[in-house]
Amino acid sequence: MTRGGHYATALALAGAALLPHGLAFALGAAAGADAPDYLEVPLFDALGRRRSLIAHRTWTHYWPFWAALAAFAVISMPWAAGSALVAFGYALAGLLHLGMDILTPMGIPLRWPPVGRRTSLRVYNTGSLREVAIIGLVWGAAGCLVLVASAVMWLFAWL
Ligand SMILES: [Zn+2]
After folding, report:
1. Residue 18 CA to ligand 1 centre (angstroms)
2. CA of 40 to the centre of ligand 1 (A)
3. How many A from CA of 150 to the centre of ligand 1?
4. pTM for the whole thing?
5. How large a percentage of the chain has pLDDT more than 90?
6. Can you give the pLDDT at residue 73?
7. Rounded-to-integer distance, Cα 54 and Cα 68, Å
8. Of the candidates 31, 36, 29, which has an alpha carbon nearest to the alpha carbon of residue 12?
9. In what helix (H) or strand (E) does residue 4 lie, and over which residues does it extend?
């Protein structure tokens, strides 16, 4: 998936900004949308070919690291709510990035060590109409989640 596609899918998480304290989450999600790619420290050679400090789709695309960050953010919410929400948004956007990358033919590593072997579900090719359809599905799912979360919060506000 392209960088624009990753930002477009993470923008779906920005709907959480409508919820109480959702702005911190949305800011973290915006920062994390392309994090698995920019954390590789991409460099370009004289011919414009991408060479990164960390091999593409290896260590930064290993899901347990992102899941651990999300878990740490949830655990630290009681005493660091604002920064924990930013970290939670960052981690969820990172996991969403991996979820979108596993659908491409190149895939992502699922097993340790996260180098060499990748898994792909081969749902779409980058730049295809299927990619746009997947982004639309992510938006629809995120919109439904925000609506349900809003309804639950309104319900608890009335009780
Ligand atoms: Zn990626």
Report:
1. 27
2. 9
3. 31
4. 0.86
5. 55
6. 94
7. 20
8. 29
9. helix 3-13
